[in-house]
Amino acid sequence: MATRLTTVEREAEIGRHLRDLRLRQNIDQRQLAARADVALNAVKRLEGGKGATVTSLVKVLRALGRADWLETLAPQVTVSPLQILKDGKRTRQRASPSKEGPRV
Q1: Is residue 52 one of the residues assigned to a domain?
Q2: What is the pTM assigned to this prediction?
Q3: What's the domain range around 16?
């Protein structure tokens, strides 16, 4: 069973992984920023677990040759053919309205 990390803990973990990967490739933060076409501060924030834009994360992962990580972050959602047959109708393509209001 996977450990449930807080958002802050998860960001720090991702930052450590990015830093370790960069160091294994023997490049400094400035070089990575240039390769990824992002600001040096974006690399520092990502590695420090302080957050950055999704665009910066994607660019940094590509520059590190690890765009494949994105596949694990956003796997393609599929519907089971058996479930479709069982339901006997099309699957809804929108979310149900929330009674609690939007989550932040």
Answers
A1: yes
A2: 0.68
A3: 7-73
C-alpha to C-alpha distance for 17 and 45, rounded to whole angstroms: 13
pLDDT (0 to 100) of residue 1: 43
Structure tokens at 48: 């420090």
90 CB-near residues (< 8 Å, 6+ apart)? 84
Note the pLDDT tens digit of each residue in 38-82. Answer: 999 999 999 999 988 999 999 999 999 999 888 887 667 677 667
Q: Give 7-76 as a DSSP string.
A: HHHHHHHHHHHHHHHHHHTT--HHHHHHHHTS-HHHHHHHHTTS---HHHHHHHHHHTT-TTHHHHHSPP
Domain containing residue 67: CATH number: 1.10.260.40
CB atoms within 10 A of CB 60: 24
Could you identify the residue written with the tokens 């040759």? 65
